[in-house]
Amino acid sequence: MTLHIMFVSEQAMPSLIPSLLTKNNEDRFFPARHVLFIATQQMRQRAEWLSDALRPRGVSVEIYGIDGLANDFEKLRQILEDKFMEIDCRDPKKVVVNVTGGTKLMALMSFSIASALEWPIYYIDHQSDYILWLHNKNMPSIPITFEGNINVVMAAHGFTIASADRNPVAQNLRDLGEALIDRHAEFADILPTFNYLCMEAEAKLNANIPQRMMGRRGFQPLIQLFENAGLVKSLHGMTLCFPDEESRKIAAGGWLESYIYGKLYGLRGRQGNRALRDVATNVNIAGSNGARNEIDVAFLSGNHIGLIECKARGLVNGEPAFTQDAIHKLKSLRDAGGKQTYLYLCSYAPLSNAVVERANQDGVKIISGGRLANIHTLL
Predict the structure, then answer these.
(1) Lower Cβ count inside 10 Å, N or C end of the chain?
(2) Contact 348/195 with Cβ under 8 angstroms?
(3) Are 311 and 320 in contact (CB under 8 A)?
(4) Helical pair 323-332 and 353-361, crossing angle rounded to 10 deg
(5) Burial, 323: exposed, middle or buried (Cβ in 10 Å; 0-12, 13-18, 19+)?
(6) Is the model's pTM score more than 0.85?
């Protein structure tokens, strides 16, 4: 069994990918099944997270600490030479070195020592999504195609998924979402009122329709869409009745979550460097500090985690009341997939440039209004 030596850094993916690579019978090195993580004191916890993510997948993991030596050139070189020589004496023909992680000093030093020992050396290039061999230019690069999912990537960053839904979206909800998005210009002004009635129906599952609403443009066609989806019934045009609490929640805004999740669900498994490898909805996430959050939609595209909050509610005094809470939740989870986690807030109501700018400053991309029709190209 080949031993993969890796240096742990804040970015977990370079240390995770080698063990998740799809098996290729022509390659004798991957996927990695025996790993030695070399970690400084600051990176020790991250090494433990990586171990917790990999061991359930049958990967043998060792952690070798180099506490206090990261910036001491002479001592670091000596301890790495001693460790590499110890390994070389055991089985020099079954060792490869991943120089992607760690500090630049660690990478250069390990490259020098491994080259002297004639060990294969590789680097994971996230720009091209290839594993590049550095010791031998004649060895072909390896495309990064792996079998990981959201759970294992988050686990490598210290987050746990307590529960998630990966079932397909029902046809009636797909049709509803498509209609509401396609006819956004028709329903954008009236949907907040419908949302209000849905909230009024909480617990009792019915709400009286105010007389002034009945003649408003778009109201009756909107009700008809939700009736066609089986989520509500209008009694004599006077009362909205919901068959159950789940239907009321979907009508009150859950339909947008289903629409976006359904769009991504249909793209799973597409080939290419940015393949959509996994997608889930109603994702309950626990951080290493015990904090829990629920995210509407999470996905793994290429080597990156994406998190989406969906809001179908309208505006209060011209501004979305939910914006700051949603952005705060997304910010609290921005490390769930590493420093390159994608964060999105999807809103049926168009948002002002000021709100969009504030969100951008916090690393959150907003997709709103009619742009939701192209959600699969914008993520």
Answers:
(1) N
(2) no
(3) yes
(4) 20
(5) buried
(6) yes
